[in-house]
Design a protein that fits this description.
four-stranded mixed sheet; alpha/beta; 14 strands; 2 domains; binds (4S)-4,5-diaminopentanoic acid; Aspartate Aminotransferase, domain 2; Aspartate Aminotransferase, domain 1
């Protein structure tokens, strides 16, 4: 029995499903998760001393690669000063200034400890600002696990086959209206009837929790226009796409200015961090300035701020994004070529340094298409790649992430492994 297998058995006695986040349990793909003991650059090493080329990147944060020496050195320095003070520190302002500089739609920022906190708080703020209750989200988009947002959700919720969670009061879920992602007509029809009741539209501007699905031309523009007309707050959930699909996130890549933005992952450089920010008039309603309450013991934690700020400084290096995006394109094109050569129905999506792939022929733009892909084939591909030392997300409903540490040789090795696996399907 491998050490991973025995650790998983032990974990199941004390952790529900043996994990602290459902998708890690491999329920969707079968088999047992590998337990990781260390990482470096683009690689993970498991407890049985097997090395993997990693395309999860801790689900997005590790954009400069694992254990980047500059990030680690800065964190070591910060550790010597103390782990947490529960009082303001200078680095929180440095971080806020850096984010406002990179994303000009953000005029003020509040740091929190996770993406879920960021989206939950942004929704409360939008409701407080508009004095309205209803929110709009899109099927298959995932905005963390707060009650209002765990309705027809993506990511782990889809993995478990339960897009609606037990425990969410129906009286609360009724305020969440769910529309089809990329369906402009549906958005316009809803706002024509109910626009004046809607507090906020929250969207992953590039959907990353039903696989990767980019917005069709005009979709994000339509959201902006309808929010402008109705007075609803447009929230871009850029927890995944922030600093990932462009330095300035999807709002830069697609040139749409949201009212509020939620962030996580890269902004923490691998530490538990989230943030939300945006228009000064909206953010000014947040306690202690205004009547919308939000707080957190570890918010703005100095170690997390240090790891995040070090990462944000590294990604501003000239040439960082062109190289990263070229590597991602090399990967998706290589996978497509090998699938075609093996006669497998397969399609890929890419947004900057994020990618997705689906076992189906047509281009994927809608949630219903995602749900009609060949997930049995995905499972076989995933397990074949894992056996070959390639770590992909263990679900067809997640995205992949490339880091600046991935070399051309790493991508070539991945494509070579995929050739053999495709031929075996
Ligand atoms: N829900 C996140 C992925 N979309 C995080 C999964 C995890 O960390 O296990």
């Amino acid at each position: 029995m491998s050490r991973s297998t025995s650790l998983f058995e032990a974990a199941k006695h004390v952790l529900p499903g043996g994990v602290n986040s459902p998708v890690r349990a491999f329920a969707r793909v079968g088999g047992h998760p590998v337990f990781i003991k260390q990482s470096h650059g683009p690689y993970l090493v498991d407890v049985d001393d097997r090395q993997y080329i990693d395309y999860i990147g801790s689900w997005g944060p590790m954009i400069v690669g694992h254990c980047h020496p500059q990030v680690i050195a800065r964190v070591h320095q910060a550790l010597d000063q103390g782990l947490s003070f529960g009082a303001p520190t200078e680095i929180e302002t440095l971080m806020a200034n850096k984010v406002c500089e990179i994303m000009p739609s953000i005029e003020m920022l509040r740091m929190v400890s996770s993406g879920t906190e960021a989206t939950m708080s942004a929704i409360r703020l939008a409701r407080g600002f508009t004095r309205r209750d209803k929110i709009v989200k899109f099927e298959g988009c995932y905005h963390g696990h707060s009650d209002s947002l765990l309705v027809k959700a993506g990511s782990g919720a889809l993995t478990m086959g339960e897009p609606d969670s037990l425990g969410v009061p129906a009286s609360l879920a009724q305020h969440t209206i769910t529309l089809e992602y990329n369906n402009i007509a549906e958005v316009e029809a809803l706002f024509a009837v109910s626009g004046s009741q809607i507090a906020a539209v929250i969207v992953e501007p590039v959907a990353g929790n039903m696989g990767l699905v980019p917005p069709v031309p005009g979709f994000l523009e339509a959201l902006r226009a309808e929010c402008d007309k109705s007075g609803a707050v447009l929230i871009f959930d850029e927890v995944m796409t922030g600093f990932r699909v462009a330095l300035g996130g999807a709002q830069e890549a697609y040139n749409i200015r949201p009212d509020l933005t939620t962030l996580g992952k890269i902004i923490g450089g691998g530490m538990p961090v989230g943030a939300f920010g945006g228009r000064r008039d909206i953010m000014s309603l947040l306690a202690p300035l205004g009547g919308v309450y939000q707080a957190g013991t570890l918010s703005g934690n100095p170690i997390a701020m240090t790891a995040g700020l070090a990462t944000l400084e590294l990604i501003q290096a000239p040439g960082f994004y062109p190289d990263l995006f070229a590597r991602t394109t090399q990967l998706v094109q290589g996978l497509q070529t090998e699938a075609d050569a093996a006669g497998i129905e397969f399609t890929t999506n890419q947004a900057g340094a994020m990618f997705g792939f689906f076992f189906t022929a047509p281009e994927v733009r809608y949630f219903s298409q995602v749900m009609n892909t060949d997930t049995a084939r995905f499972n076989a591909f995933f397990n074949g790649m894992l056996a070959a030392g390639i770590n992909l997300a263990p679900s067809p409903f997640e995205s992949g992430f490339v880091s600046a540490a991935h070399t051309e040789a790493d991508i070539d090795a991945t494509i070579t492994a995929a050739r053999t696996v495709f031929q075996s399907l």
